[in-house]
Design brief:
Layout: H1 3-15, H2 21-29, E1 34-39, H3 47-59, E2 69-74, H4 82-91, E3 96-100, H5 103-112, E4 118-122, E5 142-146, H6 149-163, E6 169-174, H7 181-195, E7 198-203, H8 207-216, E8 223-225, H9 229-233, H10 235-244, E9 249-251, H11 254-258, E10 263-267, H12 269-284, E11 300-305, H13 306-311, H14 318-323, E12 326-328
Parallel strand pairs: 1-2, 1-3, 3-4, 4-5, 6-7, 6-8, 8-9, 9-10, 11-12
Antiparallel strand pairs: 10-11
Helix pairs in contact: 3-12, 4-5, 6-7
Length: 329
């Protein structure tokens, strides 16, 4: 550098207000990457899961507030807000969008951008939803984890039937606004035919509709609750309704069984969110979503609440207890 240029550079730096120096340093070092986090529900029921996501990020070398920022957008159960929230994240712009345990959020993100990487965690087949070209080679800007819910709901139905073998039919609670409602209903009908049991598929979206579903069931009638973010957020009220109306209920998450639900079988969602955080970290480091195969959950849990079974007057066979990952007594 010539002497005159050096003097001008030093003079310019000296004239720069000190409060601007950190911004200048960050600009020179490269801006901190930003993760856009989009979800159809709210923070409170997902707090433990979010902690798992952050552990995964940390294992990949990213700590929120130190070398990565997270922009949160929670729809609070109002899916109609998701397109607007997704558009906000795209305008930021963010480095990657994470949509975990929320198919509506995933679809909103995919509709909002074809360039920003998207990492999803869903219960449906992402190929059927048009999110990826194939499981092994997603091809576009999205990849993630798919639990292939159709297989899991058949397993849940079988466990519920095993516990209440003499029930004339089994009710299923689905949210018709969820895109997985139809494929899940179809999968359950096939599984029910194999088990020789009649299904009573009931749909509900609002609190009032859900309460009417429970009121329509006779005490002792078994119920399978479908996978849905709004049902997870309402798990405490669902458990309370099940107790009030004496309904033996199967859930997809251990949190419901821990809160007093009869049984649950499904992926260890906290572990899956941690798995998601690790892969989002890889994407921040340059991995391309289109080249990352869609994964499956690595941990599944079967939980039985014996306290609830006793209240309902049900004897849980020792063989079922032996197969459970956790028995709450």
């Amino acid at each position: 550098m010539r002497r005159r240029e050096f003097i001008l550079a030093v003079g310019g730096a000296a004239a720069t207000p000190s409060f601007l120096w950190p911004r200048m340093v960050r600009a020179q070092q490269g801006a901190m990457p930003v993760i856009g986090f989009l979800h159809s529900a709210s923070l409170e029921p997902n707090a433990k899961r979010l902690a798992g996501f952050k552990r995964g990020l940390q294992s990949a070398g990213f700590i929120e507030g130190q070398n990565v920022a997270i922009e949160y957008r929670w729809a609070g159960g109002q899916n109609a807000k998701l397109p607007e929230l997704a558009a906000e994240l795209v305008k930021k712009p963010v480095s990657v969008i994470a949509t975990l345990s929320s198919t509506p959020a995933t679809r909103a993100a995919k509709a909002a951008t074809s360039t920003i990487p998207i990492f999803f965690l869903i219960a449906e087949d992402p190929v059927e939803l048009g999110l990826v070209a194939s499981l092994n080679r997603p091809g576009g800007n999205a990849t993630g984890i798919s639990s292939q819910n159709a297989e899991l709901v058949a397993k849940r139905l079988g466990l519920l039937r095993e516990l209440v073998p003499r029930a004339p039919n089994i009710a299923v609670l689905l949210n018709p606004a969820n895109p997985n409602a139809k494929p899940v209903s179809s999968a359950l009908q096939s599984a029910a035919a194999t088990l020789g049991v009649q299904l009573n598929v009931l749909e509900a979206t609002t609190d009032a509709e859900i309460e009417r579903v429970y009121q329509s069931l006779k005490p002792g009638s078994p119920l399978l609750v479908g996978t849905d973010p709004s049902f997870f957020a309402r798990r405490a009220s669902l458990v309370a309704l099940g107790a009030k109306h004496a309904i033996p209920t199967m859930y997809d998450n251990r949190e419901a069984a821990s809160a007093g639900g009869l049984m649950s079988y499904g992926q260890n969602t906290e572990s899956s969110w941690e798995q998601a955080g690790t892969t989002v970290g890889r994407i921040l480091k340059g991995a391309k979503p289109g080249e990352l195969p869609v994964m499956q959950p690595t941990k599944f849990e079967y939980v039985i609440n014996l306290k609830t079974a006793k209240v309902l007057g049900l004897d849980v066979p020792l063989t079922m207890q032996a197969r459970a990952d956790e028995v709450i007594e």
